[in-house]
Amino acid sequence: MMQYNERRELKIRLATENDVNLIYHWRNDPSTRKYFFDDSEIEKSNHEKWYLESLVIPSRHILIAEYIECPVGVVRFDVKGNIAEVDIYTSPGSRQQGAGTIVLEAAINWVKKNLKNVEKVVAKVKPQNVPSLRVFEKNNFKHDYIALGLNIND
Fold it and tell me: Residues 6 or more apart from 110 whose CB is under 8 A from it?
C-alpha cells in the first residue's frame, strides 16, 4: 500500500479533454458515488457533454493531481465572486492512504497562485463522508454552518 506523504512528488495540472474517460470511471466507481449528493451512475454520453462544457466555463477550474506522474485525484473549483466551492475525489486505488489531504493542499495552493480574487474556499460534504471531512479538517477548513434538507416527496 502506497502512502502519499511526499508532497514534492505531487503535481497539479489543469484537466484537458484527454481526461474525460479517467474522470468518468472514477466518478462512477461505487466507492466514489456513495458519498456524492447525487449517487446515481451517470451515462457516459451525459458525462462527456457535462465535462466538455465544464472545461470552457470561465468560472470553473478542473484540476488533475498526479503523484509520480500517475493521476490520483480530481479537484473542481466553481468560483462566484470571491468564493470558490471545491469538489474533490481521489482515484479508488489511492483512498485511505493520505492522497486526499495532499491533493487538496496542492489544489488550494494552485488557487492562491492562479485565482487572486478568491478569498475563501467552501466545501459541501455529506455527514457520513467521514474520510472527506477529515481531509478538509486536515487542511484547516472549519464548520461555517450546517445545511439541513427535507425530502417532501418521501
Answer: 12, 63
- Position of cell 463522508? 129
Find the range with the poorest average confidence among 52-56, 69-73, 93-97, 121-125: 93-97
Mean pLDDT estimate for the chain: 89
| Strand extents, DSSP E, the chain | 10-14, 60-67, 70-80, 83-90, 120-123
In order of start, what are the domains of the chain with their CATH numbers? 7-138 (3.40.630.30)
Q: Mean pLDDT over residues 138-148, rounded?
A: 88
DSSP state of 32: H
Give whole-number Cα distances, 59 to 56, 104, 154, in Å.
9, 19, 35
Measured between alpha carbons, how far is 129 from 122 in angstroms, rounded to an integer? 16
| Cα–Cα distances in angstroms (integers) from residue 131 to residues 15, 34, 85, 90, 152, in the given order | 24, 12, 18, 11, 29
Say what the pTM is: 0.87
